[in-house]
């Protein structure tokens, strides 16, 4: 029907708007544009798919932060949304503005496959290779189905390649070399098919580079990351991967690539491991790249070459050729061999895993100048290490001391900050720790105050500050705690918590005789809400003439007080001396915004126009799709008529997900 067609277009418009926000990292605004209270059909296929995309992004963010449980929860939500979207795709006609039913189904199947692939990756990281393999196989099955429905859909090709690649990683970890090689070959074939059909598809180049890294071929990996950047310079991922590979051989270029990655990466994604690593690389601090399946067995350990007496350039080249990376590079004065390696760590002949870092000390014939020791108290260990090495000093002995507040942070340093020492001197630091006999903070939420105190003391901790908080929960039950449940804490350290106390009732004031606006302000200050009824009366228009409940009544915070507000007399003079009459509200549905405003004003009414957030009606002709009061309702002259407008819907097919 025509109504259903309009609803589908509205839902598709909301989904496209959400996707535009999502792709620019504005996840909150994307969520808002799909809100049910905006009238968006929550069961439509485009909306369900868009909700799945948001949950999948949230899972990626959680995983990058190291929160596997939150990532699993978001993946479960994404899977539910995609499955509902796929079911709706089979029962509803196409939205028209999007691609045809076959391609839309392929898109949703590809998204479902990505959920399985991400779930498998989490299982692989947790050491559950059987579950990982099962999830990757489920992903491959979905993607093969999507390819059969639409052989040219490029995202199905790249995701299928990734499923095969990850199956190869599992086989590699299980020691099945032949099975791993076969899976890697299938993965490479999918990536290259995607490149043949879409030569500018940066995702395919990026995944091909990642595959070569898994196979232990960094040169081919770098080449493909560079191609990805050239194809789509606005996509950040390849900059990060290339920076990781180049940090040893070309730290300046690696720093520049990391800076570009951080500039392109939306803020919502900059709270996890990748962003932290990129910031370190940008500052010239080398980081250990993630482990790869190849080179992870004892039989593939690399013999560290002898780098002493080699020039810096020769040493860096030898490190790269050996499949290792350069770590810290320091300079030490008083040497007769400037810019030549005088020390290395690990020593020559030692065994190291592929892509392990090798630290170097270069000689310089300059007389060393004293340097000032940086202050690192209250810094985390990695921050302290960076500050010390940036000054040309070394991190000396690292010891621990039990602490309640500064766990993982520097408690003391020797020498103290500001002391002048020779370059290369060690700085000893003491880090706060929970100690060997640490306690795990229990979950106190929902317990009574007495129970919470007993639980805390029973495990060797102390009761810290206890706060009372007005709340609707049962009086005396714990509402919040610090630290959170599950936190490891040294014995005798304190746990704070708050417990609920009854919320005091609020006395209703007398609002009769006030203006509606005055009454609303006073109600808001008391924490009360309100609803307004209007009726004709002799009192001046806008004055409160009755209220319910009456003055002096005690009510709960948030209670809604009913106010009856005068609309003045329909005919004849009011108390304010103005003669007014009633008129019917005009029908402005589907009319252009300007025409609707003129019709409303012609009858002596006041138009109020509402435009959806993020919509520009300055250049597009916006039409009315809702009005209040309804057409032909009798209202007094001067009454406000609210209309909701939006531009015509124009669908723009977007890429997968």
User: Helicity level, as a percent range?
Assistant: 40-55%
Main β-sheet: number of strands, strand sense, barrel status? 3 strands, mixed
Structural class: alpha/beta
Low-confidence stretches: 93-103, 295-299, 572-579, 650-656
Record the strand order, biggest sheet.
Answer: 2-5-3
Residue share in β-strands: 15-25%
| Form type | globular
Q: Rg, please?
A: 33 Å
Mean pLDDT reading: 83
What is the CA–CA distance across the termini?
29 Å
Q: How many β-strand runs? A: 25
Number of helices: 18
Commentary on this structure:
It is a single chain. With 657 residues, the chain is of the alpha/beta class. 41% of the residues lie in helices and 19% in strands. It has a three-stranded mixed beta sheet with strand order 2-5-3, with helices on one face. Strands 7-10-8 form a three-stranded mixed beta sheet. Strands 12-15-13 form a three-stranded mixed beta sheet. The longest helix has 25 residues, at 101-125. The protein is globular. Residues 93-103, 295-299, 572-579 and 650-656 have low confidence and may be disordered.
């Amino acid at each position: 029907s025509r109504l259903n067609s309009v609803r589908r277009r509205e839902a598709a418009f909301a989904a496209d708007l959400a996707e535009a926000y999502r792709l620019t990292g504005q996840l909150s605004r994307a969520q808002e544009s799909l809100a049910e209270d905006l009238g968006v059909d929550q069961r439509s296929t485009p909306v369900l798919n868009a909700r799945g995309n948001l949950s999948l992004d949230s899972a990626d963010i959680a995983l990058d932060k190291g929160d596997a449980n939150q990532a699993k929860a978001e993946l479960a939500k994404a899977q539910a949304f995609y499955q509902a979207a796929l079911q709706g795709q089979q029962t509803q006609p196409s939205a028209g503005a999007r691609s045809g039913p076959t391609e839309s189904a392929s898109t949703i199947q590809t998204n479902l496959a990505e959920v399985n692939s991400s779930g498998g990756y989490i299982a692989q990281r947790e050491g559950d290779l059987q579950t990982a393999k099962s999830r990757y196989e489920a992903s491959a099955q979905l993607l093969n189905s999507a390819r059969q429905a639409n052989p040219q859909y490029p995202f199905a090709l790249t995701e299928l390649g990734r499923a095969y690649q990850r199956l190869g990683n599992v086989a590699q970890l299980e020691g099945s070399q032949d099975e791993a090689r076969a899976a890697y070959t299938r993965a490479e074939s999918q990536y290259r098919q995607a490149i043949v059909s879409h030569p500018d598809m940066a995702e395919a180049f990026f995944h091909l580079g990642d595959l070569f890294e898994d196979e232990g071929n960094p040169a081919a990996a770098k080449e493909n990351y560079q191609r990805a950047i050239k194809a789509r310079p606005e996509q950040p991922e390849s900059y990060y991967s290339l920076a990781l590979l180049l940090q040893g051989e070309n730290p300046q270029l690696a720093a520049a690539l990391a800076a570009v990655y951080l500039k392109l990466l939306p803020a919502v994604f900059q709270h996890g491991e990748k962003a932290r690593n990129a910031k370190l690389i940008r500052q010239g601090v080398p980081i250990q790249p993630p482990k790869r399946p190849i080179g992870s067995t004892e039989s593939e350990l690399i013999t560290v070459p002898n780098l002493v007496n080699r020039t810096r350039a020769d040493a860096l080249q030898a490190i790269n050729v050996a499949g290792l990376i350069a770590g810290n590079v320091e300079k030490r004065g008083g040497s007769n061999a400037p810019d030549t390696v005088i020390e290395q760590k690990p020593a020559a002949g030692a065994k190291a895993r592929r892509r392990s870092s090798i630290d170097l000390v270069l000689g310089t014939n300059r007389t060393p100048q004293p340097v000032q020791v940086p202050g690192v108290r209250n810094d985390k260990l990695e921050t302290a290490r960076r500050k010390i090495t940036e000054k040309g000093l070394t991190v000396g002995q690292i010891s621990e001391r039990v602490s309640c507040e500064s766990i993982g942070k520097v408690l003391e340093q020797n020498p103290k900050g500001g002391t002048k020492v020779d370059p290369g001197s060690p700085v000893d630091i003491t880090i706060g720790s929970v100690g060997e006999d640490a306690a795990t903070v229990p979950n106190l939420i929902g317990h009574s105050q007495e129970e919470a105190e007993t639980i805390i003391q029973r495990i060797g901790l102390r009761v810290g500050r206890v706060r009372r908080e007005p709340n609707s929960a049962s009086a005396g039950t714990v509402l919040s705690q610090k630290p959170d449940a599950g936190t490891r804490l040294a014995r005798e350290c304190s746990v704070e918590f708050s417990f609920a106390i009854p919320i005091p009732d609020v006395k209703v004031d007398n609002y009769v005789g006030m203006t509606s606006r005055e009454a609303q302000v006073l109600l808001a200050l008391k924490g009360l809400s309100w609803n307004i009824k209007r009726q004709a009366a002799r009192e001046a228009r806008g004055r409160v003439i009755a209220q319910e409940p009456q003055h002096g009544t005690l009510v709960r915070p948030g209670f809604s007080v009913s106010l009856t507000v005068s609309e003045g007399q329909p005919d004849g003079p009011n108390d304010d001396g103005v003669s007014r009459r009633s008129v019917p509200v005009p029908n402005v549905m589907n009319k252009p915004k300007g025409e609707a405003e003129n019709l409303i004003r012609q009858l002596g009414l006041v138009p109020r126009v509402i435009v959806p957030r993020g919509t520009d009606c300055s250049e597009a002709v916006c039409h009315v799709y809702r009005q209040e009061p309804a057409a032909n309702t009798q209202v007094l002259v001067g009454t406000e008529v609210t209309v909701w407008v939006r531009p015509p819907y124009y669908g723009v097919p977007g890429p997968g997900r």
